[in-house]
Automatic annotation (TrEMBL):
Domain ABC transporter: from-to ranges: 2-236
UniProt xrefs under InterPro entries: AAA+_ATPase, ABC_ATPase_HisP-typ, ABC_transporter-like_ATP-bd, ABC_transporter-like_CS, MetN_ABC_transporter-like, P-loop_NTPase
Keyword Transport on entry: yes
Protein name in UniProt: ABC-type polar-amino-acid transporter
Keywords: Amino-acid transport, ATP-binding, Cell membrane, Membrane, Nucleotide-binding, Transport
EC number assigned by the record: 7.4.2.1
Species the sequence originates in: Gordonia jinhuaensis
One Pfam family of this chain: ABC_tran
GO cellular component: plasma membrane
PANTHER family, sorted: AMINO ACID IMPORT ATP-BINDING PROTEIN (PTHR43166), GLUTAMATE_ASPARTATE IMPORT ATP-BINDING PROTEIN GLTL (PTHR43166:SF9)
Molecular function GO terms recorded: ATP binding; ATP hydrolysis activity; ATPase-coupled polar amino acid-transporter activity
Subcellular location: Cell membrane
Membrane topology: Peripheral membrane protein
SUPFAM superfamilies from the UniProt entry: P-loop containing nucleoside triphosphate hydrolases
């Protein structure tokens, strides 16, 4: 579903992605781990071309990422992304946040978009909040709206970049539960998260990055119980140690 071949990227002098080659099959759930600055967010952002790459190739469902224009807009619609900050439209209701892109980009009728949105809000457990504005919701609820909004475009892939790290601890699980159920339904997912419970429960694969490179690529059980590299051991020691 996602194929990256020899992807390199620099920010000026900084070599932020180093020869990344990854094949992610349909339905696979990948957790990306690594120290701060290792390139995890940049990796995600290249997959829907929020960041252009210097060299290499990226394909989503067999199609190479377009450079720009209409083709890029339609690619973006197929690759949903959820960030740490929810980025909801503050002056629009929850329902309108979820129906906006489907009506504008997918050209769904207002009625059809609304029907889909209500089903999605139900699925993420916040149908009762549909007429409120984002500021009236908790962080965990807002993040679930952000997930519903992405799903409303019927994406082939979902990217999550630390979706729970801005949340109060008691709200983390309600967002992770939605992610776990998506994973179970067969969504192809790339998740940057330090939530080890999620990684163990839902991930098929763990990718550990350091300094712009993929250092380890294995199943969660092997990664957590027997990391191969010193860098991964050191990283796990730090995050599991507290
Ligand atoms: N737009 C940018 N311009 C210049 N440098 C950038 C830009 N975005 C990221 N970087 C740098 O690229 C490197 C990788 O950043 P990235 O955000 O991908 O790391 P990360 O692994 O997601 O880190 P964190 O865990 O802190 O989120 C860092 O050194 C960062 O400072
Ligand atoms: Mg990041």
């Amino acid at each position: 579903m996602i194929s990256m071949r020899h992807v390199d990227k620099h920010f000026g002098e900084l070599h932020v992605l180093r020869d990344i080659t990854l094949e992610i099959p349909r339905g696979q759930v990948v957790v990306v781990l690594g120290p701060s600055g290792s390139g995890k967010s940049t990796l995600c952002r290249t997959i829907n071309r929020l960041e252009p790459i210097d060299s290499g190739e990226i394909y989503v469902d067999g199609e190479q990422l377009p450079e720009e224009g209409r083709a890029l807009a339609s690619l973006r619609a197929e690759v949903g992304m959820v960030f740490q900050s929810f980025n909801l439209f503050s002056h629009k209701t929850i329902l309108d946040n979820v129906t906006l892109a489907p009506t504008k980009v997918r050209r769904l009728s207002r009625d059809e978009a609304k029907k889909n949105a209500l089903a999605l809000l139900e699925r993420v457990g916040i149908a009762g909040q549909k007429d409120k504005y984002p500021a009236q919701l908790s962080g965990g609820q807002q993040q679930r709206v952000a997930i519903a909004r992405s799903l409303a475009m019927n994406p082939k892939v979902m990217l999550f970049d630390e979706p729970t790290s801005a949340l109060d601890p008691e709200m983390v699980n309600e967002v992770l539960d939605v992610m776990v159920s998506l994973a179970k339904e067969g969504m192809t997912m790339v998740c940057v998260t330090h939530e080890m419970g999620f990684a163990r429960r839902a991930a098929d694969r763990v990718i550990f990055m350091d300094n712009g490179a993929v250092v380890e690529d294995s199943d969660p059980e092997s990664f957590f119980t027997a990391p191969k590299s010193e860098r991964a051991k050191d990283f796990l020691g730090k995050i599991l140690g507290h």
